[in-house]
Design brief:
single chain; alpha/beta; VC0802-like; Rossmann fold; 2 domains; 7-stranded mixed β-sheet; 32% helix; disordered C terminus
């Protein structure tokens, strides 16, 4: 498959350790965590596998060059002499994503424009014509990072963010990012070891990601393309071999996975997305008002839910969260309930003290993933309620 090289996987704050564990389980070498990223080594086949399988990665970048540049002229001159032709053809489209930190370079848009000028000028000088920019769906996307005088250049092997799994065609008002959903499930300890329920499922993202984890289905099996398919060294046969090998590892979950919502529109959207993900046989979708429901399965239940925060959906959030907690206590014994919310005041109305709280970000909103274990039997339930008062 070739030699190992360094790669960088981007993720959300709070999910770095999860991503590192995923990478180690896949066989990555020299795994090192940072802030919102994990560095690792592997060969080209592992890069394909990482893009296909990782649930908590947003991007897989391949660093290709570093250099020190003191000013704008050095920056342009150095990039003009960089061998861009080794990474793309003149007939391919390209784009730059730039991040600048420090006092020497202050404007990321200007930096990306000057990098574009250097690339275009080099191609025009060497072959007599220039490649075109495509900011939305380029054939080749470069990531440019400047920290003070240190320039780092990387290739984006993923293309569109890896949260775009390829199954979502319909969303509700506040859709949950698929990578965040997978991370929340993994943080909750979900592995398919019991029955599962999302009682306010919206467009079904948590249930879909839960089913894919339980069935060991690669996270991005439904994507139509990855950026590395446009690279000069693209090996279609190797990718197919990896794809088939990962598909052979899938299993049929032993327990039920349910998604419910009181809104008919949400149920329809969830059904559409579940069908797109080819998971109809694994996920049951029903129209249910959680506050008028009861646990229907015997044995332990794993519940993960992303209820409204009050940011986009209006209403009495404290009353909603109080009703949620009351329903759990009264109707859902032997349940491990995990609730993701940025509304900490409403969470205080739950009527239960969370056993764990994990800090995460849902977009720009600082959120908490709160764990509420609901025990079997009135004595333990009563004690839990007393402790929370």
């Amino acid at each position: 498959m070739g030699h190992n090289f360094e790669m960088l996987a981007k993720t959300f704050f709070g999910m770095e350790a999860l991503l590192a564990d995923e990478l180690k389980a896949l066989g990555a070498q020299e795994v090192r965590t940072g802030t919102r990223l994990v560095r690792f080594k592997g060969d080209i086949g592992f890069m394909y596998k990482a893009n296909l399988c990782l649930r908590t990665a947003l991007k897989i970048l391949k660093p290709i060059h570093t250099h020190r540049v003191a000013n704008e002229k050095e920056f342009y001159d150095h990039l003009y002499h960089f061998p861009w032709e080794n990474y793309m053809d003149v007939d391919q489209t390209f784009a730059f994503d730039a991040v600048v930190l420090g006092d020497r370079f202050r404007h990321s848009l200007y930096v990306s424009q000057r990098a574009k000028d250097a690339l275009v000028d080099r191609f025009r000088k060497r072959v007599g014509k220039r490649p075109s920019v495509d900011l939305d769906r380029p054939d080749i996307r470069f990531h440019l990072h400047i920290h003070e005088d240190r320039l780092s250049l990387a290739l984006d092997s993923s293309g569109a963010s890896l949260h775009k799994r390829g199954y979502r065609s319909a969303t509700n008002i506040a859709p949950l990012n698929e990578v965040l959903a997978a991370g929340v499930l993994l943080l909750s300890g979900w592995e398919g070891q019991s029955h599962f329920l999302d009682p306010m499922c919206g467009s079904g993202t948590l249930a879909i990601e839960a089913a894919m984890i339980a069935a060991k289905i690669p996270a991005n099996i439904n994507r139509s393309e990855f950026a590395f398919e446009k690279w000069p060294d693209w090996d279609a046969d190797l990718f197919q071999k990896i794809f088939d090998a990962q598909l052979d590892r899938t299993i049929t979950p032993e327990f039920s996975i349910r998604a419910t919502d009181k809104a008919p529109s949400a149920v329809y959207k969830a059904q559409d997305n579940i069908k797109n993900a080819h998971l109809e046989e694994f996920i049951e979708v029903d129209r249910v008002n959680f506050f008028h429901s009861n646990k229907i399965q015997e044995g332990p239940l794993h519940m993960v839910c992303n209820p409204p925060y009050g940011e986009r959906l209006t209403g009495d959030m404290e009353e909603l969260y109080k009703s949620f907690g009351d329903t759990l206590k009264q109707s859902y014994p032997n349940t491990q309930a995990w609730i993701l919310s940025s509304n900490r005041d409403a969470l205080k109305s739950f009527g239960l003290r969370p056993q764990r709280r994990i800090k995460l970000y849902n977009g720009k909103l600082e959120a908490r993933l709160a764990y509420f274990p609901i025990y079997e039997g009135s004595k333990k339930q009563s004690k839990t309620t007393t402790d929370a008062s």
